[in-house]
Write a structure and sequence with these properties.
Shape: elongated
Strand content: 25-35%
Bound molecules: adenosine monophosphate, magnesium ion
Largest sheet: 6 strands, mixed
Radius of gyration: 31 Å
Helix content: 10-25%
Number of strands: 28
Strand order of the largest sheet: 7-4-6-5-9-8
C-alpha cells in the first residue's frame, strides 16, 4: 500500500500550527546563537592571563570596574588589571576572555579576590557556538515538536513550510448504522467506527472527513463513494466481506475504482481491501469495530504518516514478555490487544481476556498491540513477543526519579 501514498504539496504555517507536522523545506539559521559572547555563570569577567596564578592560598586581587547583566547593551571594554561584575546571559565586555564564578571569589568593597584561576574561554558562551548563521536547523522529514518549535522561535522564525495535511474521507456502510444521538430503532446500532476512526485520524494529524453512513444499497454506496473521492484518501468501513449485502467491491468497480488486493493474512482484519482511483488510495476496512481499529493502526496509519511527510512511517515493535500463556488457531498473524507495563528492565504484556473481534471494552486502557506469529498454536508464559506500543505508551505508578528524592 505504501507506494500509493505520497506526500502532498507543501504549505506555510505559523510555528504554533506546525506541531506534529513534517518539515517540507530545509530551515537555516538566520543569525548566530548566542548572538554575542556572554557569560554562562554569575561571577566576574576577567583577562585569563591576569588570574593565571590564582589558587588556594594565593588570591589575585583586582578592582571591580562596571557591571554587565542580561538584557542591557554591551558594556565598555574591560580595562587592563580589572574585573567586571557579570551575571548569567550578560554580554562579555570586550577584552575579557574568561569568567571566574562567584563561588571562587571574595568581594571586599570595590575590589574582588580571585581564589581560582580561570583559563581562556572558561564559562564563556561564544557567539555562534550553539548555532552559526546559515547552519541547517531542520531538514525535510523532521517532525515538529516542542524542541523544534523552541529552536525556530529562538531564531525569530515564525513560519515554516510543512507538508499539507491530507483530507481522509470516512465512509461507513450498513443499513443498521445510526449517528450518535439518533433514535435507535429495532436492529439499529450506533456508527461507533466513524467516531473511533475520526479520533484516530485526528491523533495522526490528518484531516478527518466523516461522511454520513451509506445504507447497504449499491447505488447509494456508489453515490457516497463519488463524494468521498473528493478527499485525498478514502477509507470505507464495512461491507467488504463475502456476505450477500457486502456491496463495497461491486461499488468500487462500478465507480471505476481499480482493485489492488483483497484479504490479508492477519487476525483481526482479514477482509481488508485496497484499491485506487486515478492513483488516489482507497482502503476498505472491515466493519467490525476491533478489525477496523486494528487494521487502521497496523496498515493504514503508516501510509498516512508517509503522506504527512514522515520518512520512517513504519510501526516499530519492541520485544516484550508474555505475562500468561496463550492458545490460538495458527495460520494468520494475530494482533492482540494488551496492556504493557514495565517490570525491571523488561516490558511485560498482559493480553486482554476477550480477543474476539467484536468486543469494544477490550480496547479500554490498551497501550500495546502484540504480534503473535502465524505458525504458533501455543505461546508459553514468559515467551518473548513483538509489541507495538500504542497511544500514550508505557505507564507506571513509580517514578524513575524516586531514588533521587
Ligand atoms: P460488515 O463488515 O459490514 O460485515 O460488518 C461487520 C460487523 O460490524 C457487523 O456486526 C456490523 O454491524 C458491524 N459494523 C459495521 N460497520 C460498523 C460501524 N461503522 N460501526 C460499528 N459497527 C459496525
Ligand atoms: Mg455491513
Amino acid at each position: 500500500m505504501l507506494p500509493a501514498f505520497e506526500p502532498l504539496g507543501e504549505e506555510r504555517v505559523h510555528l504554533l500550527e506546525a506541531s506534529g507536522r513534517y518539515i517540507a523545506r530545509e530551515v537555516r539559521a538566520v543569525f548566530d546563537s548566542p548572538p554575542f559572547d556572554n557569560s554562562a555563570m554569575d561571577g566576574y569577567a576577567v583577562r585569563s592571563s591576569e588570574v593565571e596564578s590564582a589558587g588556594p592560598g594565593h588570591a589575585v586581587e583586582l578592582p571591580v570596574r562596571g557591571e554587565s547583566r542580561a538584557g542591557v547593551p554591551l558594556p565598555g571594554p574591560l580595562e587592563p588589571g580589572a574585573a567586571c561584575r557579570i551575571f548569567t546571559g550578560a554580554p562579555m565586555p570586550p577584552g575579557a576572555d574568561a569568567v571566574v564564578i562567584q563561588e571562587d571569589t571574595e568581594r571586599v568593597g570595590d575590589r574582588v579576590k580571585i581564589l581560582e584561576a580561570s583559563p581562556r574561554s572558561k564559562h564563556v558562551r561564544a557567539q555562534g557556538s550553539d548555532v552559526s548563521r546559515g547552519a541547517v536547523l531542520l531538514r525535510p522529514g523532521d517532525r515538529v515538536g516542542p524542541g523544534e518549535i523552541g529552536l525556530l522561535a529562538s531564531q525569530n522564525i515564525d513560519h515554516v513550510e510543512v507538508y499539507r495535511r491530507p483530507e481522509v474521507a470516512l465512509l461507513s456502510t450498513g443499513d443498521e448504522l445510526r449517528a450518535l444521538g439518533e433514535a435507535l430503532g429495532p436492529g439499529a446500532i450506533v456508527n461507533s467506527n466513524v467516531y473511533a476512526l475520526t479520533e484516530m485520524l485526528r491523533c495522526l494529524g490528518v484531516i478527518p472527513v466523516p461522511l454520513p453512513a451509506a445504507p447497504d444499497s449499491l447505488p447509494e454506496i456508489e453515490a457516497a463513494l463519488r463524494k468521498a473521492l473528493e478527499s485525498d484518501v478514502v477509507i470505507t468501513m464495512g461491507g467488504v466481506s463475502v456476505g450477500a449485502y457486502d456491496f463495497v467491491h461491486q461499488a468500487f468497480a462500478n465507480v471505476g475504482i481499480e482493485p489492488g488486493f483483497w484479504k490479508v493474512r492477519i487476525k483481526p482484519g482479514k477482509p481488508l481491501a485496497f484499491a485506487r482511483f486515478e492513483g488516489k488510495p482507497v482502503v476498505g476496512v472491515p466493519g467490525n469495530p476491533i478489525s477496523a481499529m486494528v487494521t487502521f493502526e497496523i496498515l493504514v496509519a503508516p501510509c498516512l504518516r508517509k503522506m504527512l511527510g514522515d520518512p520512517r512511517p513504519h510501526p516499530q515493535p519492541v520485544l516484550a514478555r508474555l505475562q500468561d500463556s496463550y492458545r490460538r488457531r495458527p495460520g494468520r498473524v494475530e494482533i492482540a490487544r494488551a496492556v504493557a507495563t514495565r517490570e525491571g528492565n523488561e516490558i511485560v504484556v498482559a493480553l486482554h481476556d476477550r480477543q474476539g473481534s467484536g468486543s469494544l471494552p477490550s480496547f479500554v486502557g490498551v497501550n500495546a498491540l502484540v504480534l503473535l506469529p502465524s505458525d504458533k498454536a501455543e505461546l508459553a508464559a514468559g515467551e518473548l513477543v513483538e509489541a507495538i506500543l500504542w497511544g500514550g505508551g508505557l505507564t507506571s505508578e513509580r517514578s524513575p526519579f524516586d531514588s533521587l528524592a
